[in-house]
Amino acid sequence: MSKEEFIVAVNFILNSTFFSFNQKIYKQVFGISDSPLSPVIIANIIMQGLEEMAITKLQILPLFYFCYVDITFLHFNWI
């Protein structure tokens, strides 16, 4: 994902959140929504970039790679 695409995605998330209070609908103008997906999406985007940077610096590639939000598991075969 390019930097521009990332900015568009974050702006979309931050600018499309509405909630209701006392039977009125409001647009959220600060922060990330209470939706369980928003923090997960942001964490995945950040972690993916960090993991790619780290893996490219390794001298050996992992045999197995698994990632979920902020949990990363890599398996190496050391001989």
Please give a handful of descriptors for the protein shown.
23% strand; two-stranded antiparallel sheet; 79 residues; alpha+beta
Q: What is this entry, summarized?
A:
Helix content is 41%, strand content 23%. The chain is α+β, with helices and mostly antiparallel strands. The strands form two sheets. It has a two-stranded antiparallel ribbon with strand order 1-2. It has a two-stranded antiparallel sheet with strand order 3-4.
Overall description:
This protein has 79 residues and is α+β, with helices and mostly antiparallel strands. It has one domain. It is 41% helix and 23% strand. The protein is built from two helices and four strands; from the N terminus they run H-E-E-H-E-E. A hairpin with a 2-residue loop joins strand 3 and strand 4. It is elongated and about 65 Å long.
Q: What is the helix tally?
A: 2
Shape: elongated
**Intertermini distance:** 35 Å
Number of strands: 4
Please estimate the helix content.
40-55%
Could you report the average pLDDT, rounded to the nearest whole number? 80
Order of neighbouring strands in the sheet with most strands:
1-2
Structural class: alpha+beta
Radius of gyration, in Å, reads 18 Å
Which residue ranges are poorly predicted, with pLDDT under 50 across at least 5 consecutive positions?
none
Task: Please describe the biggest sheet, giving its number of strands, its sense, and whether it closes into a barrel.
Answer: 2 strands, antiparallel
